[in-house]
Design goal:
Blueprint lengths: L9 E2 L4 E3 L15 H6 L7 E5 L5 E3 H17 L7 E5 L6 H10 L3 E5 L5 H11 L3 E4 L14 E3 L11 E4 H6 L16 E6 L9 E5 H15 L7 E4 L6 H10 L6 E4 L5 H11 L3 E4 L1 H9 L1 H7 L7 E4 L6 H10 L4 E7 L7 E3 L3 H4 L4 E5 L4 E5 L6 E2 L5 E6 L6 E2 L3 H7 L6 E9 L4 E7 L4 E3 L2 E3 L1 H8 L5 E11 L3 E10 L7 H9 L10 E4 L13 H9 L3
Parallel strand pairs: 3-13, 5-6, 5-7, 7-8, 8-9, 12-13, 14-15, 15-16, 28-29
Antiparallel strand pairs: 1-2, 2-19, 3-4, 10-11, 11-22, 16-17, 17-18, 18-24, 19-20, 19-21, 21-23, 23-24, 25-26, 27-28
Family: Belongs to the ATP-dependent AMP-binding enzyme family.
Keywords: ATP-binding, Ligase, Membrane, Nucleotide-binding, Transmembrane, Transmembrane helix
GO molecular function: ATP binding; CoA-ligase activity
């Protein structure tokens, strides 16, 4: 047996880092879908989902009865194994019900952002070819140009619209069919088709199997050890995104936790819900966390947050300043971080205790049953501890590939199942992963490589900077140089030259910022990642 370092998890023989967490167990029964896997688990909880705005709730038995009713109806409409079903909806207590119903049939769920334009949704429809869509009355116009049959989620079927075949309300009133013969679904069958965020390029459909999602659920359960008493989570992150789908539409349901669903994110509503439902866990993205620090005194004066035990941050790494700032303002609340990709079903690395989170800048230790390599992007050589290269991941939650895109699949997944994450990282002597930057986002200045995230972290330490993003700006002589978009704190008169001088004093000459633009906000995707391609477009449109 090859010798694996108990400290770093690194094995010299095969140059692989192995997870130091206890491995997850996967069901041996191959004929198993995610829905059956979750519904067959014992749970102590009583209420599964509560709608934050109406107080309407679903108990666990009601969730599974609703799943039965919806899958019976879909079956009657001819939806069967392999069919794709689109879900276009804000967060709702019925979002998980629809996802689990579709997957129970061996059909494939594809979700999309309600904020997407008709054109962007059209592109996803053209690519994924769904046979049916679930949507709400207000989002209906975004699907009018398609010929998809539609099930309305939030209102009765009163419309004369020919495409509306049913409403969720009438489906839920029907008794589930007792005679329906279920098609056999295997763990290797496709369960979901989520589109990756496309922060650096075009969005691609990520194909995840039932096995991938079962592994994801098992990882979440082992991470939070939620069987010890009932917990209440606030669902602030979008369910259409892997972060929301992983946690709220499947992982936490399997634990028997109660989930308070906010249909859209609103800071005051989130705090009211923590107070009203005595919530214990708050998953969020870094911009919300920063908002909680900046307004801590007002928030604590207005709301009782004493029930809150942990905040879970994902989407982008937290700096030392942010972590310490939060702990100072909310001393009784733990911060836990997570790192994952749509391509790995949201699983990759995590900090599972405050001690781990205090190792600043880390994405955490490798998730249970996950393996990693650090690879030189130029030569393909695998590195050991404290060497920076591209992070490759392999494990049971890693996707099957990209939908109808063999080229993208081959360039991202190798024949041995290694997923090239596109993130530049190193793993230290204790096995902690540190994300340096996105490989595709490195700024190439005279042949030097400049990581934007490093400059952004530095800018955020300036007392007058509220938020910042750094992008490559094209230049004939040097190739590219760093340009910063900066959001000033209110009342600040910070100048361009002051920003450049602040950075210049602390970095090597090739990393200096050579152009600054002030903005009212930094564009980000739902998981908090900076949409650099939008800023690059804005900056270069004036050229």
């Amino acid at each position: 047996m090859a010798q694996v370092s108990s400290r770093s998890g690194f094995c010299e023989t095969d140059s692989i880092f192995y997870s130091k967490r206890k491995p997850i167990s996967l069901p041996s029964n191959q004929s198993l879908d995610l829905t059956t896997f979750i519904s067959s688990r014992a749970h102590n909880g009583k209420i599964a989902y509560i709608d934050a705005s109406t107080g309407h709730h679903l108990t666990f038995p009601q969730v599974w009865r609703a799943v039965d009713s919806v899958s019976s109806c879909l079956s009657d409409l001819g939806i069967c194994k392999g069919h794709v079903v689109l879900l276009l909806s804000p967060n709702s207590i019925y979002f998980p019900v629809i996802c689990l119903s579709v997957m129970s049939l061996g059909a494939i769920i594809t979700t999309t952002n309600p904020l997407n334009t008709t054109q962007e949704i059209g592109k996803q429809i053209a690519d994924s070819k769904p046979v049916l869509a679930f949507t709400t009355q207000s989002l209906l116009p975004k699907l009018t140009s398609t010929n998809l049959p539609i099930i309305l989620i939030d209102s009765e079927k009163t419309s004369k619209n020919q495409k509306i075949v049913a409403s969720l309300e009438e489906i839920l009133k029907k008794e589930p069919s007792q005679t329906r013969v279920k098609e056999r679904v295997n763990q290797d069958d496709t369960a979901s088709l989520l589109y990756s965020s496309g922060t650096t390029g075009a969005s691609k459909g990520v194909v995840s199997s039932h096995r991938n999602l079962i592994a994801m659920v098992q990882t979440i359960l082992s991470r939070f050890r939620l069987e010890d008493g009932e917990q209440t989570f606030i669902c602030t992150v979008p369910m259409f995104h892997i972060y929301g789908l992983a946690a709220f539409a499947s992982g936490l349901l399997a634990s028997g936790s109660t989930i308070i669903v906010l249909s859209r994110f609103e800071m005051d509503e989130m705090f009211s819900c923590i107070e009203k439902y005595r919530s214990t866990y708050l998953p969020l993205v870094p911009p919300i966390l920063i908002g909680m620090i900046n307004n801590a005194d007002k928030i604590k004066l207005k709301y009782d947050l004493s029930s809150l035990q942990s905040v879970l941050s994902g989407g982008a790494p937290l700096s030392k300043e942010v972590t310490e700032g939060f702990l100072e303002k909310y001393p009784t609340v733990k911060i836990l971080q997570g790192y994952g990709l749509t391509e790995s079903a949201g699983i990759g690395a995590s900090t599972d205790s405050l001690e781990e989170s205090r190792i600043y800048g880390t994405a955490g230790l490798l998730s249970a049953s996950m393996e990693a390599r650090i690879v030189d992007p130029e030569t393909g050589e695998s590195f050991g501890v404290n060497r920076t290269g591209e992070l490759w991941l392999r494990g049971p939650s890693v996707m099957k590939g990209y939908f109808s895109n063999p080229e993208a699949t081959t360039s991202t997944l190798d024949s041995e199942g290694w997923l090239r994450t596109g993130d530049l990282c190193y793993i230290d002597e204790d096995g902690f992963i540190f994300v340096v930057d996105r490989l595709k986002e490195l700024i190439k200045y005279k042949g030097y490589q400049v990581p934007p995230a490093e400059l952004e972290a530095l800018l955020l330490t300036h007392p007058e900077v509220l938020d910042a993003a750094v992008i490559p700006f094209p230049d004939k002589e040097v190739g590219q140089y760093p340009m910063a978009y900066v959001v000033r704190k209110s009342g600040s008169k910070l100048s361009e030259s002051a920003v450049m001088d602040f950075v210049a004093k602390q970095v090597a000459p090739y990393k200096r910022i050579r152009r600054v633009s002030f903005a009212s906000a930094i564009p980000k995707n739902p998981s908090g990642k900076i949409l650099r391609k939008d800023l690059i477009k804005l900056a270069t449109s004036k050229l």
